[in-house]
């Protein structure tokens, strides 16, 4: 019972991106234990109630993980600075976001299934390659992507990763404008 209380407390806590990896670990562990919980508490009314509470805690943890992941994108967009990063080096935000996304790939199946359960995935689109200049090629590239049978076509997480990197790119372009030296604006 205390395990359920802890899971519920975590799901009700603030949506901080730093906690997402632990929330996903909890969700995966709860998912792995679900068959055992069903077998262990299958015989009476109390067991049925406990199984229902367990599923509700799992649902809340999943919703918390999804909302925390989406909050990460908002945190990137709202990161503002009034001073340029010295020397035009790689901005710490870039390192943070890329390391965060790399860590999330360990939970790709879980995160993808949680994101697929929500409707906002279909509104995200994967932008065409920036190297493409000819508009006819953009249409061809988009239709080739839509008609491809690659598993990436179906991953909600892929679309969200593209969206996050687009927000990061826009944020960094704004930060680059802080440099007085025009050459640093292009390197940064």
From TrEMBL:
Ranges for the Exocyst complex subunit Exo70 C-terminal domain? 1-188
Example GO BP: protein transport
Q: What top-level branch of life does the organism fall under?
A: Eukaryota
Supply one GO CC term from the record: exocyst
- Name the InterPro entries for this protein: Cullin_repeat-like_dom_sf, Exo70, Exo70_C
Gene3D superfamilies this protein is in?
A: Exocyst complex component Exo70
Task: One Pfam family, please name it.
Answer: Exo70_C
Q: What does this protein do?
A: Component of the exocyst complex.
User: Which family is this protein grouped under?
Assistant: Belongs to the EXO70 family.
State the name under which the record lists this protein. Answer: Exocyst subunit Exo70 family protein
Please report the organism this UniProt entry assigns to the protein.
Answer: Brassica oleracea var. oleracea
Organism lineage:
Eukaryota, Viridiplantae, Streptophyta, Embryophyta, Tracheophyta
């Amino acid at each position: 019972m205390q395990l359920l209380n802890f899971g519920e407390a975590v799901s009700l806590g603030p949506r901080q991106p730093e906690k997402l990896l632990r929330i996903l670990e909890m969700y995966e562990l709860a998912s792995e234990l679900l068959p055992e919980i069903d077998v262990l508490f299958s015989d009476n009314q109390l067991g049925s109630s406990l199984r229902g509470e367990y599923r509700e805690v799992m649902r809340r943890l999943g919703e918390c993980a999804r909302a925390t992941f989406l909050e990460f994108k908002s945190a990137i967009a709202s990161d503002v600075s009034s001073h340029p990063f010295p020397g035009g080096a790689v901005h710490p935000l870039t390192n943070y976001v890329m390391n965060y996304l790399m860590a999330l790939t360990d939970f790709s199946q879980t995160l993808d299934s949680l994101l697929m359960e929500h409707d906002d995935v279909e509104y995200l689109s994967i932008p065409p390659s920036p190297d493409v200049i000819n508009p006819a090629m953009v249409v061809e590239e988009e239709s080739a992507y839509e008609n491809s049978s690659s598993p990436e076509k179906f991953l909600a997480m892929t679309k969200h990763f593209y969206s996050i990197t687009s927000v990061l790119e826009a944020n960094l372009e704004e930060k680059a404008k802080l440099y007085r030296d025009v050459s640093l604006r292009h390197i940064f």
